[in-house]
Write a structure and sequence with these properties.
- The protein has 270 residues and is an alpha+beta fold.
- The protein has a single domain, classed as Glutamine Phosphoribosylpyrophosphate, subunit 1, domain 1 (4-Layer Sandwich).
- Helix content is 21%, strand content 31%.
- Strands 2, 3, 11, 12, 13, 14, 15, 16 and 17 form a nine-stranded mixed beta sheet that branches.
- α1 packs across α2 and α3 packs across α4.
- The longest helix has 17 residues.
- It starts with a strand and ends in a 22-residue tail after the last strand.
């Protein structure tokens, strides 16, 4: 069986003076085929539900997550469920039932991260799950604790250790802040250390209030939305971040009043 696979994914919390403020999920945009050097840098790997505070990212074999997650986030499946636990139970049930219906020879290892929120504001509660299937261990569904520091919580995919190494180096340079994770993630993509990771980064986040959101990303001087060139797109009310995690506009110019996030040194392999 020739799997279509994806590569690098990172999840981390944003912490401010009042505690946990945001959960972020970042991925690359490359799809590649096992046993082949072919790749396509326009894959969609992160998702936001417009009706509930839930965000998702996946890694591994593309087939099940790319077919099931759009149906979950684009429809009313989660909208009537009042809390994160019940919404996640519905997600897990749907993913598992769809994957179990596949012919055995067409199954490939994959994982899904699901971040969700109960309540609003300072009293809100955020939860993170990792759902995974592989042919040796079968199914697992794990609640992952979120630490009280802005540091990489988990990385996954073939670029797992590349992400971990580069975010660790960025944290040493920049400190335990959200931008060190995203900057390190971008450094890992630019490095080319994992040939199955590439293309522009994709970024979603879940704040204390409102539903999840997609961010526009400025990467190596170009603007992208969900992995595609954004120059010809009209996407209203979109927040933008560059590789330094600075708040900017779609041209890459830092917004007036936005905090500058300079680097102390030059990133590796850039």
């Amino acid at each position: 069986m020739e799997e279509i696979v994806m590569t690098s994914l990172a999840v981390w919390p944003g912490i401010d003076s009042r505690g946990l403020s945001t959960i972020y999920i970042a991925s690359d945009s490359r799809l590649s085929w096992s046993g082949s050097a072919d790749s396509w840098d326009r894959g969609v790997k992160v998702f936001v539900c417009p009706l509930t505070p839930d965000i998702f990212g996946f890694y591994g074999d593309v087939l099940v997550p790319s077919m099931v997650l759009p149906r979950i986030v684009e429809g009313p499946i989660l909208a009537l469920l009042p809390d994160s636990l019940r919404r996640h139970a519905s997600v897990y049930q749907m993913v598992r039932s769809c994957a179990d219906a596949l012919p055995g020879a067409r199954r490939g290892t994959f994982g899904i991260f699901h971040a969700s929120r109960d309540g609003k504001g300072q009293a809100s509660n955020r939860l993170l799950w990792h759902t995974q299937w592989n042919p040796k261990k079968g199914w697992s569904d794990t609640l992952i604790p979120l630490e009280g520091v802005s540091a990489l919580t988990v990385s996954a995919g073939s670029g797992e250790f590349v992400v971990s190494n580069h975010t660790s180096a960025a944290r040493t340079e920049l400190g335990a802040v959200s931008r060190s994770v995203f900057t390190g993630f971008c450094d890992g993509l630019i490095s080319g250390d994992d040939p199955r990771s590439g293309g522009p980064p994709q970024l979603v986040g879940l704040y204390r209030q409102g539903y999840g959101m997609h961010f526009g990303v400025i990467f190596q001087g170009k603007s992208y939305y969900r992995g595609v060139d954004a120059m010809s797109l009209a996407v209203p009310n979109l927040e933008w971040r560059n590789e330094l995690f600075e708040r900017c506009d779609s041209s890459g110019q830092r917004l007036i009043g936005a905090q500058a996030q300079p680097r102390l040194g030059k990133p590796k392999d850039s």
